[in-house]
Amino acid sequence: MSVKAEKMYATMKPWRLFFVVAMPGMISMFAMSIYSIIEGIFIGQILGEGAFAAVNIAMPLVMITFSLADLIGVGASAPISVALGKKDYKTANNVFTCSVIMIFCVSVLMGSIMFFAAVPLSMLMGAEGDLLATSVDYLRTVALCSPLSAIFFAMDNYLRISGYVKTSMIINIVSNLLTLGLLTFFLLVCKMGVVGSALATSIAMSICSIVAMIPFVANKALLKFTKPKFSSGMVKQIASCGSPVFLNNISGRITSILINISLMTLGEQVFGKDGGQTAVAVYAVLMYSSDLCWPLLYGIADSLAPALGYNWGAKDYGRVKSISKCAYIGASVVGFVSTAFLFFFPDVIASWFVKAEDVLLLEVSTYAIKLFCFAYLFRWFGVVTQSLFSAIKKPFQATVISVGTAFVFPVIILGALWSFGLDGIWFNFVGVNMFTAILSVILLRKLLKEIKNRELQESFSI
Description:
This protein is mainly alpha-helical and about 450 residues long. The protein has one domain (about 1-460). About 85% of the residues lie in helices and about 0% in strands. The protein is built from 18 helices and no strands. The chain has helices at about 1-10, 15-45, 50-85, 90-115, 120-125, 130-150, 150-160, 165-190, 195-215, 230-270, 275-290, 295-315, 315-345, 345-355, 360-370, 375-390, 395-415, 420-460. It starts with a helix and ends with a helix.
């Protein structure tokens, strides 16, 4: 298995590598997001607008619960890949082992904090009455399950690093089938409301986390569990490489909180009493609609990251450029197709999450999707560029892109377009990704100059 994965990353032709690694990666990431889409459909169609809005209120807080675990999982992937490129298996296995232990510990910590702080945090976002109670129930259920469910996403990265690309894809598909079955049972049979929804996704992710560990526990994967040796240098390296994703998560959740608060205010102004709930529900429809497209972009970027890190560690810079080119071309196709899909079928997409009798919510959601969809004309470029910098252990550049996309640009545009009301919020995503693409071009040009200098140095040293 070790030889197979390394040979694939080091020698396989770039476009063949793209189809062997990135295509299953796209399916895998899309499958991971399907649980969210399925959940949205069930909540919207069965529980209605109130529950739909409550889950959207809770979701930024749920993601904060997973933020540190994600930091460790993503942060460990880059040094692991680079170490493998250098044939340093001892370091790779130690980082892997320590990261799994760290993820479990921080998930217990974050889950505990979110469980006990659920009420004040939900109130901070403008929730009150039934909306508050429903949000708290959802958040606390997810928090209780987080110590085991949080490791699900990290194990997906480790499987792909070890060459288990198809296994990762299958596990994600099984996770969604299990989620679908549990949602049906908890919502339709047990009538458990949002608690049932949270339990369904959490239980499915927890079970699949355990299954994903089997190749590593059985010593059949490229990475193996070893006696952990923690060091401050290793922890700093993981934190440094994972900081772009961590800051993106935290910044993005803060931005979501600000947007939800803004939606509560503007919704009341536009739609009258309870209009804030309607506006938040529309925003939820946009987020679920985005889940139909963004996983394909991240699937390309994340799947090729181990190959980029491996070849960067091996100092094969020409291959790094060739693989990156494939990633940009593939992601651009996904970006343009996603824009067309959302633009031409907004009413169909909105109807998946909104009951037919909720006429106002359906109408506004359809309109909002047609504005929002143009974000994907630009989003692909920033996603691939950020992933590239993370893969080759350049966390500063990746962090700049991450924080700009998740916090700086959205907040600036939110203020600049405030006078446009809700339209300004629907268009926010388009403006953010335009600025991100410009920033990515600037940073990428500097990287290409650095690679050129490295190649010259390598040629002189031969």
